[in-house]
Fold these 2 entries.
Entry 1:
Amino acid sequence: MKLIQKIKEATRPFLITGPCSAESPEQVMSVSKEIAKNGNAHVLRAGIWKPRTRPDSFEGMGNVALPWLVEAGKETGLPVTTEIANRQHAELALKAGVDILWIGARTTVNPFAIQEIADFLKGVDIPVMVKNPVNPDLELWIGAFERLEKAGIKELVAIHRGFSVYKHPKYRNVPTWELPIALRERLPDLPIICDPSHITGRRDLLLEVSQKAMDLNFDGLMIETHPDPDKAWSDSAQQVTPTELKSIIDHLVLRSKDISTSIISELEELRTKIGDLDDKLFDILSARMLMSEEVGQLKKAHNITILQQNHWSNIIKSRLSQSENYKISEQFIRQIMDAIHQESIRHQTKIMNK
Ligand code: PEP
Ligand code: MN
């Protein structure tokens, strides 16, 4: 299996598509044939063992579904991949003839699990794709590649599927693009695939995130595709039909990676980093206003007025005195602090008048 070579030779994006979960032989076969016919798969995917957040959800068909995926691969002439989370999964997948293994986000977080898989794969010639850990920890992600590399795995690929946070307004898993960008700086030869399905959690954002990945020079995309997404047994909101997948791929604008456009991708990387910082800025502002409301509760309970002039004057004075450290003008500090104060008063007033 020459996965890396295939990725390098393919016209971008290299596509790994197929259902979140294998549900029946017919489901796996029909969706695989259609994606293949549309030219929207270089590798077929299907989950056999599903790590689910809560018990009593569908946890995958298990062992019996392995031949369904392998058959679909034979029928379409495409290599197939499935998620493994432990040594036993790896053993069963190899025995069934799965061509490529992938390690899921919930497994990458656990060095014991990764080491167990790496130890089992010693001497086996099979490509392994590693999803980022659920938490934004670059070293942990790199550590997984190191463990597999030490075990002699030669073909390694990264999959960026975003990072888990509590209740994000837009994403299921926030992309935090600076992390895959940093991974590429550290391991420049490692191909990187973006998984917009698990980043967005919703099909209407797949094109936007896929386009971003292409503009950041990702090598490919992993997109969950199902014959009847709304009836899917897992991740139904983010799956698309083969026809919808084709439309997403057809709408991608592919800019070349060569020198003449290097400014574009450099600019895009910078803008992405700025976007990520702005995301953090607003997360902090939002948390700060919730804190103001707690202050409002306390003032209300003790019958104190909202505006405590001395306290506020001191806060402003101390911020202004740090203008040089921040490399931000005093005027700007003043504007920001006034704006924050106004909004904080609005939140506290809301509490007082409840
Ligand atoms: C999946 O690809 O279906 C999956 C479970 O992914 P992740 O490990 O990214 O959650
Ligand atoms: Mn899924």
Entry 2:
Amino acid sequence: MELSATITSVLQAYGLNAPEYSIVRINSGHINHTYKIGTEYILQRINKNVFLHPEVLSKNLEAASVFLKQHAPEYLFLHTLKTTSGEDLTFDAEGYPWRLFPYIKNTVSINEVATAQQAYAAAQAFGQLSRQLQGCDVSKFEETIPKFHDLSIRYEQFERALLHASSERKQLANRLINKYQAFKYLVDKYVDLIQSGQLVLRIMHNDTKINNVLFEHGTDQVVCVIDLDTLMPGYFIYDLGDMIRTFVSPASEEETDVSKVRVRKDIYQAVLDGYLSEMGGMLSHEEKLAVPLAGSIMTYMIGLRFLTDFLNGDTYYQTSYPQQNWYRAANQLHLLELLESQV
Ligand code: ADP
Ligand code: GN1
Ligand code: MG
């Protein structure tokens, strides 16, 4: 079925008449296909190759929503709308799950942090989500992607990709491969940290990059966090680290000129201050000792994932030009080198 016919029939499931709306694709995410429907809705096609059990996404959202309604009724938690038959998802003819959200008006998402105020506000918002969910039964949540942020599994996936990569891609990535291998000591640090048992399993957002926050248009105020597909058990270093990864540089992970990738110390500090303003009281003394590792672990992990995807022939992340995953991996390597030279 052609895309507009698919969207028309998906919208019908929600009782909406497609010709009444302008339909605009939003390209900022790497995983799902997102469409703005008029000024009322966000329609998303879930990537079924990434989320093999989409009903788990709905189950986790529901668990969080029920808890928050009871314990933090004022909190703006983005929940899907139901189809006319009361379902959270609807499936198209190709078996892709779709879902609908209310469009949060008068908001923007950004791909680079411009000010320390933005960094503080976004970090505070991600911290607030986990703080509000403190006390919620973690066993009510399932992993939507198993072992999502397990760095040793990500390293194994990288090694497997090396075995199966085409000689052309391996050749192109030779320098990056050697450099990423040289940072393997971070896997050991990660394993030691997890095995120490000092980190508490909490409900984390697990994808805290800066474009997963909606800012009020024209201000540095956060309206809400979005992209809750990986709202599931995890450790605080995942959220804090992914914020450091995506907030501190004035150039985003898409920048192909690595000389523009920098670590802004004031922004780094604002991330810590904003996050700890919410989570500081929750984290143990031992957890706080892990704070300096968070940025490097997540930058290494996501960089490895970009490189792995390049070696696998770009099967996971959406790309818009042939070497995009190579450039993303090179960008993240540069950021990692900067972060590691500062500890
Ligand atoms: P992906 O999982 O592919 O990253 P997201 O859920 O992050 O998809 O959505 C992609 C983009 O769509 C966001 O960065 C934001 O700009 C916009 N967006 C998503 N949901 C909403 C919403 N409810 N209201 C307004 N904008 C939204
Ligand atoms: C993906 O969906 P999006 O674009 O917010 C990815 C994250 C990576 C990020 C890197 C489910 O996030 O883990 O950190 O790309 N999400 C998934 O940009 O794999
Ligand atoms: Mg996103």
